[in-house]
Prior knowledge:
Blueprint: H1 4-9, H2 11-18, E1 24-30, H3 33-50, E2 53-60, H4 63-71, E3 77-81, H5 82-89, H6 98-113, E4 115-117, E5 127-132, H7 144-148, E6 156-158, H8 160-164, H9 169-176, E7 185-186, H10 189-197, E8 203-207, E9 218-221, E10 233-238, H11 239-244, H12 248-253, H13 261-272, H14 278-289
Parallel strand pairs: 1-2, 6-7, 6-8
Antiparallel strand pairs: 3-10, 4-10, 5-8, 5-9
Helix pairs in contact: 3-14
Amino acid sequence: xxxxxxxxxxxxxxxxxxxxxxxxxxxxxxxxxxxxxxxxxxxxxxxxxxxxxxxxxxxxxxxxxxxxxxxxxxxxxxxxxxxxxxxxxxxxxxxxxxxxxxxxxxxxxxxxxxxxxxxxxxxxxxxxxxxxxxxxxxxxxxxxxxxxxxxxxxxxxxxxxxxxxxxxxxxxxxxxxxxxxxxxxxxxxxxxxxxxxxxxxxxxxxxxxxxxxxxxxxxxxxxxxxxxxxxxxxxxxxxxxxxxxxxxxxxxxxxxxxxxxxxxxxxxxxxxxxxxxxxxxxxxxxxxxxxx
Length: 292
């Protein structure tokens, strides 16, 4: 197994030696809009720069399945998130310092999956609590601790992923002691927003790259106890694929730091709200960013 520094330092030379070999890769994405978008961006970049031949495996049901595919050699590249990688895949204690976080992730992927990951893309998708901004009953509530002071209770709504997350529903209830006035609704995010507007629920949990968070009808509640970890996105790749096709490394690493929070919200909105296709949105962003 190559050491991390040598492995990441190799692309400059490896690009020249591997440029005559056309990469043939299996690129994956989990079953959500954001994962599909990131994989499509990475895939199109590989196709444009290297004429790579890709097998797209989108719609994978969750991180565990994607990671097992990577470990088993059935996946070469896919996007993953730091919180999930630490707590679910690698079973590690999370490091909050950015530099340490990346280093520990890379070493963990190398040891457990003969894989590696690039520096973070530039955004994070952290659990986020949302309420109605125009509801008089909530006019003075700006953080989760204030929400917990309510004696009448709240009607919560979240996805099944949040309900099962290590720092999801149980951690929210344990840390903030938020009282509920009814059973928690487990629904997709789109349906939760309908429930929020129609006052069937009072608080919904979404991700911080949700494009609807810029809508003035909604207010994000501050996680003042900071129970929700930063959830930074990276691209994970198998070392076998990188050794076979070293030219993919500088191409994929060129995405690191290029997608900030506002950009990811906007791209998600193009697909989820404006109903545009993944391929179209990805191609447009690559052109505007100057990467392709």
